[in-house]
Amino acid sequence: MGLGLVTEAYQPMDARGRALPPRYVVKPVSVQSVLPWYDQALGFKLFMAAEESGVLESELPAAVVRAVHRELQGLAASTEANYAKAWRRWAAFCEFSRLCPLPAVTTSVLAWIVEDLATTIAASQMQPYLSAVNKAHEHLECARPAVGPRVKATRKSVEGDSKKLVVEARRIRVSADAVADALDLAVNEDDVSDHLVRCTAAVVVDSVCCSRGDTGVGIREGDIQLREDRGVVIRLRDHKGEVKQDGLTGQERVLVFEPDAVVGLHELLSRWERVKRVTGVQAEVGVSSYYVMAGEANSSKWKQSKMNDFLHTVLAVQGVTAPAGFSYSYHSLRKMAASSMASIGVSDQRIMMLGRWKNMASANKSYIDPACADTYGCYRLFGHLLPAADRLVGVAKVPADVTRW
Fold it and tell me: Does residue 3 sit in helix, strand or coil?
């Protein structure tokens, strides 16, 4: 539908009638979406807008039509793609079972859980599929059918009776000592390859920031700044649950590492930036990945699997392999960070803020390993988060122990 999409420039004014200078640039709203129910929801919203305004749909102002599109596009692109996939599965089940997908009733959702989802998805992992159904109903202002005690009880019953046919390797935390040793190797050894320096920089930054893999590879050229006093400033974007933006929004999380807070961090990143200069990397500020090498294209589109590649390269050089039945992935770094901080006594508040957890229950359930010992690597990477009186400086490194680049 293209109603009212002619551009109309409105000029905001202050109380004295003077034009207000713009402070933000908002990308024009798209009129397309991968959501399968988008056109249906758009038609409904425009109909309601016309009813409320007392005009025909064709007479709706352009600003109103754009606002309707904007309302329906508050999801991150990855979430839209996942919801579209989930909806197609829901619609296929409803067609086969002769059920109405929209609007749906809770009983239909329960049948979907039992007869379809339970065969391929763990009960604890069904929420994205249920959320897709709920979101479609929200967009059409219908009651959400995939919530409530009936849904909760059904999922609990399925969880109790389910047995996985193939048990996949369980992801576990990487040792903080392995990351600290990799940092020393990449900084102090002359014959380290450029690729290993790049991989180590990505792994160490992801570790000390306690970030997710997609956030780590989402760091772009210009997001890391090395201060003259050897401090490091890191800007993090592409957080889970946020709408990804091509440009800066001013709401990105920024971490400022004081000089030698993590001994060797400045030297490692200095060496990586030297590699980029020597090899002629043409990185575009704000677009290219901070970790891009010469000849690599579309680095701004890298997924978290790229962090897996970085991590596996680093661990291979260290001779570290996961035990049988277990695996290391980008999430192993986040588990390591949370476990290391907890083991040395970093405050719950700091752990939650660094890991972006709303409460410690979430961190304890999925990330913190209570068996993690307070080893050298824990203090090396996270000791700076402790009160000065509690830091074991002698256990970590001192600036004289690392090579300057």
Answer: coil
* Tokens standing for residue 93: 């089940």
- CATH number for 325: 1.10.443.10
Among 286, 283, 114, 313, CA closest to 203: 313
Check whether residue 191 and residue 298 sit in a common domain. yes
pLDDT tens readout for residues 152-204:
999 999 999 988 787 778 899 999 999 999 999 999 999 999 999 999 999 99
Is residue 226 within 8 A of residue 273, CB to CB? The reply is yes
Clarify whether residues 126 and 220 are in a common domain.
no
Query: What's this model's pTM, rounded to 2 decimal places?
Result: 0.71
- Fill in the amino acid letter for 354: L
Q: In this structure, is the dihedral angle defined by the CA atoms of residues 14, 20, 24 and 25, taken in order, positive or negative? A: positive
Do the domain assignments include residue 10?
no
Q: Which residues contact 241 (CB under 8 A, 6 or more apart)?
A: 76
Identity of the amino acid at 307: M
Nearest-CA neighbor of 255 among 342, 347, 384?
Answer: 384
Let me know whether 212 and 339 are in one domain: yes
Identify the domain containing residue 262 by its residue range: 176-401
